[in-house]
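Hello,

I think I submitted the phosphoric acid mono(formamide)ester job twice by accident. Can you confirm which output corresponds to this input? Input:
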Amino acid sequence: MRAQQDTAGGLRHLITLDGLDREALTGILDRAESYRRLPGQPAYEGRELAGTTVANLFFEPSTRTRASFDLASRRLGAHVLNLDVNSSSRAKGETMLDTIYTLEAMNTDVFVIRDSEPGMPEFLIDHVAPHVSVISAGEAHVSHPTQGLLDALTIRIHKRRFAGLKVAIVGDIKHSRVARSTVRALQTLGTTDLRIVGPESLLPGEHEFQGAQRFTRLEDGIAGADVVMMLRIQKERMAQSASLDDAAYFREFGLDLRRLRLASPEALVMHPGPMNRGVEISSEVADGPRSVIREQVNNGVAVRMAVLAAIAATLTRHRRPL
Ligand code: CP
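Support: Only one job matched these inputs. Its output is below.
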């Protein structure tokens, strides 16, 4: 795989948080904090992406990630192409690589890609032109790097530290790219008490999530936690035969107010969205005072601005001369 950073340490691509050190992640979070604006404040408007064209290619559904990459790109002055993949020539059998080459020929500089096929972003960074960047907006169950960063930013804003925190991630860990990227981000930034919590059938193999403790009882996993992150059951990644009873799941693994009392009184409740209310989380908790779920969405725009700005700064060193 081509490196995600160039020889000067500049970000060229972002398809995984693996291999990015604490300094690299902290640099992105610092930049994101400078772009962050609360709802009701005027959004940051800049020219960091002036002259840059960003194409959003989402081959899986998305609300938060797609909208925030679009807004982030425009707020930094980019031209943005949101390819409607269902009416694109992909539907006529054109390969992903031919689609990329076609848009590259139209001077696209940055591809933001969500796809259900593991390995697709890595394949693309090995094939795009030297002046083109690829950002993963979610790769199968493997990786969702900007989600990991926005989760880390949300925790940093509230707790101002990563070391010494107890972080529990609850639900369908096995199919979750969010859990993989968020755990990677937090481990790199210094969190050591990480817990993955879920039914045995939804926990990954022992070779994954090394350094995290495993729990199959919600009550044990969230006891004393400073952060409780709930995940959606990803039925779209399960065999049709793997039927799950939503009500039974909520009884064992749903976060309600009674169970939330087991966590630290100052615990943050997080969820990457989309939520299934009444399945993994009750509305009282999702909309309650401990919830930072909508702050995660707000921070997602800032993080994507920071990633795009860092990549654009690197790209200027790799562009063809006129
Ligand atoms: N968290 C997340 O990736 O949400 P979307 O699927 O709506 O983009």
